[in-house]
Task: inverse folding
């Protein structure tokens, strides 16, 4: 029986909220900060045209991380971007980036949630999947922070 799951990780970025939003919204920039691209150098990806906004799509195929796609379903500048995720044509999930700004510091929260079948539940128990994914999200947001803050200082 499927069971719900969710995880989220946040990072503070010293840049205006619009700057952070614009980088996350532009799927041509995803590979510059995605932790999953660094994990699997065999990835071949395709970005739709247009590459930003509702309906834009990033799809991938790699030897290590498999194949899938993410389709932007929400784009509310500058506060929220959401994707409908499809993993290997089997599993579905919702991925969201939520942004807030206080005194020039943007907090971005990366959320992932969905339902896990028995196989996914077993994988989570055996391989600590949620812990691994939270680390990947933290690594990705740290890369995003580095990228955006370097651009903001120019």
Result:
């Amino acid at each position: 029986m499927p069971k719900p799951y969710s995880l989220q990780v946040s990072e503070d970025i010293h840049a205006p909220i619009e700057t952070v939003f614009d980088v996350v919204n532009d799927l041509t920039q995803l590979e510059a900060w995605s932790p999953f691209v660094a994990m699997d150098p065999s990835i071949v990806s395709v970005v739709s045209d247009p590459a930003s906004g509702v309906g834009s799509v990033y799809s991938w195929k790699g030897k290590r991380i498999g194949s899938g796609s993410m389709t932007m379903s929400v784009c509310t500048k500058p506060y929220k971007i959401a994707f409908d995720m499809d993993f290997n044509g089997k599993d579905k999930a919702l991925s969201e980036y939520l942004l807030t700004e206080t005194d020039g510091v943007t907090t971005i929260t990366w959320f992932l949630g969905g339902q896990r079948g028995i196989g996914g539940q077993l994988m989570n128990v055996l391989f600590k999947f949620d812990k691994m994914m939270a680390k990947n999200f933290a690594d990705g947001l740290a890369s995003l922070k580095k990228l955006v803050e370097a651009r903001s200082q120019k």
Q: What stands out?
A: The chain has one domain: 3-152. The chain is about 30% helix and 40% strand. Residues 79 and 99 are 5 Å apart (CA to CA).
